[in-house]
């Protein structure tokens, strides 16, 4: 059993993550150095975890959505909305707990909205979630009235910059969420049903799975994850920036899920691997930063990464691999 | 009445009502001066949206256009300011680069059989990153020909100015409409959006048409990038962030079905004008803030998606293969 | 032998997929000015032959001749250049474009490089009039009825090809008047000397329209005959095959004791799908459903299982009225359903054999009472063994199994839910002999254990062997209920073939 668990950990994604980390180490020898200071860990590696947490959290929800053959383009805008709600409420003097609950509720509502458009109105996911992607940021700006709402509420700030057991809060939250959601989908039948709906929705319905309800729940989860990520980002900068919070992060989340091995055509998924995917993206970001390249260089690397994945997954390359396999076998004879 | 005309009619009616209401509140909106600025200010969006119309009509999507605008602006600025090329030469180079870029995306979409959304996402990263690799800063363009072009205008009766870029946009719309509605290429675009299998059985060259569609979209985004640089007299790698969403919004609000096959280039024009009207109204009002634009666009998007769902629901049900016996 | 000038000919054409022979040295000759019906049940090789004639497939053996010359057809477009056009059941045109554009796409008349719409519409109007269609050529194709779309498709095919027209189930979704209209068009084309292949499941239409008929079964040519030399019964017998023993069939001679009624359908039906039917099903009884494709047998199954809920009549389960509006309702009441199209509606290709087996039970248990891995393995092992599923591992993706084993997996899936009532739609189609026998054994076993089953099958020998009663469907209507001595292939064939009036 132990060997099985270990075997599952050694795969393309983890090897890629280790590879990127090693590359960072080559560029920046102090990369693996971790220090203990003021009761918490410091170091580039911890930084990768910390900075990667928001995308990792988005990827948790996105993975479930993609596994049902869908996509959620609205998560970046939902992040901005949730952050705006929380910041505005604490500034107005409401208790932190209420602000957090309100922010999470906003995320949940947005997710339900997307889910209803997709499951009940049968609108294509990419189109249905586009509505909130466009309008959501405007709503966030409406809430903050266009300015960056800064706050000094220590409890809210703690979510972004505090630490627990020596780890930064975002890391703790992301890890907890990863464990909770993984348990929630794998210890119940939900994970199986998500895969079944993604692989063959018609057969799933015939086998007695309530696919519409399942889709709504999955989009709601994605909205909730986006709200949590939005809270972290807002708390981290002590303010809600409706213009930039979560901008383009939906694309990073999709990329993380795809790197994590979830096909855009739905089906098998692994939330843990998507989180590893998010860390790969972040490790590359950090590597590019520490090695002195302009941060925008990142985008070029990401483009290269998507292209690579697409080519590997394309029908041509599998034909090519078959051909190669046959040739090798032929040569061995 | 042709079914696909209904969303277009809705757009036109909404625009007419919105414009009338705005004029009633601010009579100043009804002047050639405002209309002229309307065209100038939205020129780059309009040109981009024409390309996006073709892409969406074919059932695809192009997320890279905003980044291509930014990239072309930077490329043109660097070619002119750093290498001292004549603007016209720089334009030609930029458009060729954009065309190759679009062709590569179309090639990947057709031959790798990946969703357009993912391929053009990679394209967006590449173009935006590429622009930033060229330069991080805004590169000013100081060239006599540039100043000439950007200050070129025709005087309209009533004191308005129809600028060169505004005119260019109108020209692109006219040519775009002719290509979409009166050429075989245009009919192939609609055919792909209707049903790819049928299209290929009917002899539509699917691969070639797909590549041409994304080439067209990138070239027009490149042209929009040039227009944008004329407008700002500079090239900036982070210019026009998010314009792809405005362009998609204008196309859908203009009555084109997001799943492809139905729509009109003229509708996109009305869509762009409607977006422009929202922005102008907000400026005129003074108390409303710019974010209302996004909320209104989002709302209109939702309205049109649901409207189209209702108008085309009957046909999509009919399209499904009858249950096998 | 007379030397006839075939317009198109297939000589000894074969096609092999993997280790399955879809077509086995089939001969097919098409005369100018004839309507030639091509008949056979699913899997007989009709569609493979059509795809070879239209260039979509290349034959593995034999040759194709057009006007006596051997040709190689690379693609449907290439076949078009030899004058061969085809029209399919699901109209392969563009519903979003105008009628005129559908007629001329790719060949639109142009002027100065631009499409000359006015000329295109004018030419379209002339063309449509030849087919008796007075519709506006600039109207959107999708707004017209399927019948009109079919005629437009025919017009395009004839316009662009002009020698051979292949009609692949063009009438499947048309009503009586529309069929009549289509027939007039086809008759006109026949008079013009076109060679027409006509594929349908409706025998009435074959006799009404065709001059000759070719019958395929299991990839082999059974016969090519003039229709005026053939009776309806002979035709059905040739289609269903195996030289049915008309006497001494192996039906359940022993009348089974009448047990409790499980479910009682009264005037149950759905508009535009199946005429209301009444049927009482007892525990421990197999109701066989016979009928050709398109007779409404699958529709009946879908209504019973709540996929297309009934809009009239009542269902009474164990003496209590039940409303079955969704598959979830049906499963809750102990129903199970193996769909006809395994791949599209049955299996989850990427998921494991284990998951494919437990999924319906898990669906019944709900989201939160999850079967853990060990329980899943137990269940999958138990029911997999009961069905004799041959899989290297229960964790391998089900798509790697053979069709027969996939079918057993779906059956195992339902058995795991401990159903009271199973509906099987063509459970033995397209699977190997071993799996076939296993499924028939299972049906017998389940019946003897007291389960009620409805089994749809085109294999008459098989239905006769395990059914307690047989209902016959024709034209979306239940036309006969056979019991006792009447359960024999001969009586069934008679019931299927009889058209309205008494059989001749």
From TrEMBL, chain A:
Signal sequence bounds: none
InterPro entries in alphabetical order: ABC_transp_permease
Topological category with respect to the lipid bilayer: Multi-pass membrane protein
Transmembrane residue ranges: 9-28, 48-66, 73-92, 98-119, 126-143, 155-185, 213-233, 245-265, 272-293, 299-324
Predominant cellular place of this UniProt entry's protein: membrane
Pfam families, alphabetized: BPD_transp_2 (PF02653)
Location(s) in or outside the cell: Cell membrane
Protein name: Simple sugar transport system permease protein
From TrEMBL, chain B:
Keywords attached to this entry: Cell membrane, Membrane, Sugar transport, Transmembrane, Transmembrane helix, Transport
Topological category with respect to the lipid bilayer: Multi-pass membrane protein
Domain of life of the source: Bacteria
Transmembrane segments: 7-26, 38-57, 64-83, 89-109, 116-135, 162-180, 213-231, 264-284, 291-312
Compartments it resides in: Cell membrane
Pfam family, one: BPD_transp_2
Protein name in UniProt: Simple sugar transport system permease protein
Source species of the chain: Kaistia dalseonensis
Species lineage: Bacteria, Pseudomonadati, Pseudomonadota, Alphaproteobacteria, Hyphomicrobiales
From TrEMBL, chain C:
Keywords, sorted A to Z: ATP-binding, Nucleotide-binding, Repeat, Sugar transport, Transport
Keyword hit for Repeat: yes
Superkingdom of this protein's organism: Bacteria
InterPro entries: AAA+_ATPase, ABC_carbohydrate_import_ATPase, ABC_transporter-like_ATP-bd, ABC_transporter-like_CS, P-loop_NTPase
Position of the signal peptide: none
GO MF term set: ATP binding
Pfam family, one: ABC_tran
Residue ranges of every copy of the ABC transporter domain listed in the record: 8-243, 256-500
PANTHER family for this protein: CARBOHYDRATE TRANSPORT ATP-BINDING PROTEIN MG119-RELATED (PTHR43790), GALACTOFURANOSE TRANSPORTER ATP-BINDING PROTEIN YTFR (PTHR43790:SF9)
Family classification: Belongs to the ABC transporter superfamily.
Name of the protein this chain belongs to: Simple sugar transport system ATP-binding protein
Species, as recorded: Kaistia dalseonensis
Lineage: Bacteria, Pseudomonadati, Pseudomonadota, Alphaproteobacteria, Hyphomicrobiales
